[in-house]
Amino acid sequence: MNLAEAKQQFIQSWGVFGSSWGINRTMAQIHALLLIAPEAMNADEIMEELQISRGNANMNIRELINWGIVEKVLKPGDRKEYFTAEKDIWKVAMRIMKERKKRELDPILTTMEQIREVEGNKKDAETKAFIDTVSQIQKFARQADNALAGLIKADENWFTGTLLKLFK
Amino acid sequence: MNLAEAKQQFIQSWGVFGSSWGINRTMAQIHALLLIAPEAMNADEIMEELQISRGNANMNIRELINWGIVEKVLKPGDRKEYFTAEKDIWKVAMRIMKERKKRELDPILTTMEQIREVEGNKKDAETKAFIDTVSQIQKFARQADNALAGLIKADENWFTGTLLKLFK
DNA sequence: TTGTATTTTCAAAATTTTCTGAAAGAAATT
DNA sequence: AATTTCTTTCAGAAAATTTTGAAAATACAA
Q1: Which of A9, A17, A143 sits opposite B115 (nearest CB)?
Q2: Which DSSP state fits B39?
Q3: Taking CB atoms and an 8 Å limit, are B7 and A130 in contact across chains?
Q4: Global confidence as pTM
Q5: Which domain-ending residue is among B85, B116, B136?
Q6: Å from B45 to nearest chain A CA?
Q7: Residue A65: what are its φ and ψ, rounded to 5°?
Q8: Statement to judge: residues A117 and A81 lie in one domain
Q9: Which of A17, A27, B55, B168 has the fewest CB atoms within 10 Å around its CB?
Q10: Which of B54, B64, B62, B56 shows the shortest CA–CA distance to B14?
Q11: Would you tell me which residues 136-155 of chain B have a C-beta closer than 8 angstroms to some C-beta of chain A?
């Protein structure tokens, strides 16, 4: 397998993995492409490389920017927009965690609180069992939420320059 | 909101959350239903409650069993199969983690190893950058894999009865 | 302003995923 | 072994998601 084939394989695999992570295939493929691109790329280059339409490229690039793992780069004397991906995998993972925490975990907390709150008669066994389950989930989600928040905060401050370098 | 409404709301929400976790809506709803059911339920009851077809119910119940978070219960004198969900949320989370690790993380490791392995000329800058990115991902995935494996193992042995009770 | 290059939007089409329901398969009962 | 009860399978239907491509919007330059 030569470099070109390996790159193809990488992009392809990243697309498959993305799917099982709630990220659509194209979005993951664009991310993979930018991750291994030596230079920032523009929309046309991405379209050409992945054989996708302009609309599709545009939409997914925006989404990657929203996730905070791709950014726009402007080249002087060129009207086209170029895009580049964060290359540090640890940072990428942190951003994704942060985003997923916000989009998925936080809503669970809110909903569980609501459901538990508006519950009336706590006497009968069925109601008690229900409240107990919801409370358990709430407790667990809080634990997870706090753990992630801690990890993210740690990374944003002190960890960045020091301890975590060990993992790289 | 009364108990019935709260249950409905819970099942509905769990379905939505499931979607963003790579679990389909019906599967998550069945899980939610069993999580708060005082008794084990059979396929007909589940179909009736969630208004879904027999095929759909059957398929998703099997899948929940594969994930290890629902199990079959037989009642003496009744030919129907009944189903019940693991009620301990910590255990549920552990089983899901274990399963996702196996289905998602392990394949990434395998693929990254393959891609990195079959790479030839390590001299030019582009190749080097590519190998570096893949290596970084590999390293990160290994870290995550080990961390999860540790957590799972700990839970399966010693933790279960002792330390983690603090979190409940 | 007018023209040109580039990006964004969005309705319709294509694709993928999920669901249905009826038929086939199993298991228990008579 | 025939009947009844229940479970599984799976092809086609329905629903949801993703993609396309052309038109509209925006940005810049002359």
Answers
A1: A9
A2: S
A3: yes
A4: 0.89
A5: B85
A6: 17
A7: -65, -40
A8: no
A9: B55
A10: B64
A11: 136-137, 139-140, 143
